[in-house]
Amino acid sequence: MIKESLILALLCSITLCAIEVELRSSYETVAKPQKVLRLLRSSSISDIKERNMLGQLLSDETSILADNNEENIWNDLNVTYTGNITIGTPPQRFEVLFRTGSGTFWVPSSRCEFSFTCLLHNKYKSKASKTYKPTQSQFIISYPHTMLSGNVSNDTVSIGGINASGVLFGEVTRFTGPSFLGAGYDGILGLGWPDEAAQGGPTIIQALFDQGKIKENSFSVYLTDNKNEKGGRLVLGGVNMAYASSNFSYFPIVEDNAWIIELQDIKVGNVSFGVRAMTVLVETSFSSIAFQRRMTNKIWSALPNLTDCQNLTGFPTLSFIFGGIEFTLQPKDYIIFQQSDNQLQCRIAITNTNLSPEEDGIVVIGDTFLRAFYTHFDFTNKRIGFANANRIKHEEE
Length: 397
Prior knowledge:
8% of the residues lie in helices and 39% in strands. The chain is mainly beta and 397 residues long. The chain is globular and about 60 Å long.
């Protein structure tokens, strides 16, 4: 069982490091700044220019089609995936990071104590909303180098063209520390379980289901590998088979109230690693795949040196076995490519989890895996489903 005090340190590459702890949930993982501050668009900093200025198989027959309740997802260099929501009446727009590793939902408040983090992001104005309701609750979340605190508020939230009333969220009135200073999103929308939510109450998916706005208490995530292009989709209330090129295979969650499933084995090429007693957290806000250090070293030793981004000759496939079924990543899937100063850069998206010995059986699979497999998160049946992603391209809206 994951401990509340567990600190999961996911050592990402280059500019992204996902390291967080939440006081009221098992843990939080957040992407550090990937977009530069919007108010610094005239800066000559090279980063701003680069950022464009700123095992049990269950039946798949119960998977339903959603009724076109979808939210567009923006892919930021295969590192962070964000989308737009509104809060209040009339609606106030926010860009949020979608998270499956937690149920916590927060945005900055207009009553935020002065800080550059608040200054440079959209802020929720409770007095401007006709549907706002105060609560007597407060919250606090601790991250490495940053602490958030504020009040729990109640208001109408719109996502994917549908509204849920009476949604609880954290209205951050104080940021202590720099972690979110340059974040290219305003807040975090947790898609985890309600018990993991720092603000308490039902999460957005649960609220939509309870109010009859979606047919099923589930959602699915399709992530595109088309960089800087609107192509990903968050599907509310089921799946859209247009994003899949195979049927779904389902696996039960093995931890209470967490998107964690059992991993049977890992293969590099045709070589089995004989994995035992490992579990996998499926995390949409993490860009890579993270293993305990010993396993990471073992995998890296089986890979050739990455010296030429345009020549992947000799790189094997990487397969994950759930419920006797192999889900295979090609080299182009687990190697992330980025353009920097008109030069192609690349890295292998496999890293470490800095866990204590008793927790070293946890693997985190993030966007590197999810781009290849359209994923269904099913609250009702407590399971996760994977289907081969249909590599279709959506035009920018």
